[in-house]
Specification:
The protein is about 35% helix and about 15% strand. It is α+β, with helices and mostly antiparallel strands. Strand 4 and strand 5 (about 165-170) form a beta hairpin.
Length: about 300
């Protein structure tokens, strides 16, 4: 099984050179769009688009990842572990992201840890829906498996809370990763400059920042009177160029235009003959769930 970034490079080289493979990726995108529409239609009716059952139904003979919603109290940890093994990780993430974004766009998904490597952590994302919280956790050693131990296969960990209480702890499950999952994770974490992954209709803030140029993002924004629930927070730094001054009348003119048009000041200030820098950040985002690593004894 391929487990190293370079193992997938020949496939990427072929993909970039072969129009048929590129067309295949476009077909995958269209299929994701179709699946999302099926999800949306069924979820609004309280049904699962994968198995066709009610979200509240638990049929032990048909393990399904909608059990992650634990809409039925009969669903135990072992049932969720069984359901997780029926789908690739990327399918599970897509499902949970769609669920989260059905409640509130962007703010319920935090995968910034996937791009901020620390302490051997390779991939993490936290997804929230109402009173449920899931965290996917993969360390570098998990990608290869723990050689010489029972868990000698590529795997990931799941942490799940309900009403803020732990239901599944990180160390309780070692869910196998498929070869495609390993490729998906490498692509998500930027191992291949020409390849990136997003989940259509399941985008996160980091997807927005990584795949949409800042100018394009700013041009699509309008100011909001609701500072608390506005999705983005903008900070603008303006400095006069050497030997020049910024007139107060120029600023007043831009403020007037801002009030009339709702175009963000961050955009309007670029009209000045000055050096400007804009920082765009999430205004509202769930906190990542951090794993407490076991401490070695003395």
């Amino acid at each position: 099984m391929k487990t190293k970034p370079q193992d997938f490079q020949p496939f990427i080289n072929r993909m970039m050179a072969d129009p048929e493979l590129k067309n295949g990726l476009e077909s995958d995108h269209l299929d994701s769009e179709r699946q999302y529409q099926q999800f949306k239609e069924n979820f609004l009716k309280g049904k699962c688009y994968l198995c066709g059952e009610n979200i509240t139904r638990c049929d032990y003979a048909k393990p399904c990842i909608h059990w992650l919603l634990r809409a039925h109290k009969r669903i135990k940890k072992k049932n969720i572990e069984e359901a997780l093994k029926t789908k690739d990780l990327n399918q599970i993430i897509a499902f949970l992201r769609w669920v989260a974004n059905s409640d509130e766009k962007l703010t319920q998904i935090n995968d910034f840890e996937a791009y901020e490597k620390r302490d051997g952590l390779f991939y993490q994302e936290t997804i929230k829906y109402k009173n449920l919280n899931w965290t996917i956790w993969i360390k570098e050693g998990d990608l290869k498996g723990h050689i010489g131990k029972q868990i000698d296969f590529p795997h990931y960990h799941l942490h799940m809370t309900i009403d803020g209480r732990n239901f599944i702890n990180f160390s309780e499950m070692h869910i196998p990763l498929s070869e495609y999952d390993v490729f998906f994770i490498y692509a998500r974490t930027g191992k291949y400059p020409n390849v990136g992954f997003t989940v259509p209709h399941g985008e996160s803030f980091s997807d927005i920042f990584n795949f949409i140029p800042e100018e394009e993002l700013l041009d699509g924004m309008v100011s909001s009177d609701d500072d608390i629930n506005a999705p983005f927070h903008l900070q603008t730094f303006v400095q006069a160029k050497p030997g020049k001054l910024i007139k107060g009348s120029e600023i007043a003119k831009l403020v007037k235009e801002h009030n009339e048009t709702k175009v963000p000041m961050a955009v309007l200030l670029k009209k000045l003959d000055a050096d400007t820098k804009v920082l765009v950040s999430p205004n509202k985002l769930i906190e990542p769930v951090l794993r407490d690593e076991p401490k070695s004894g003395r």
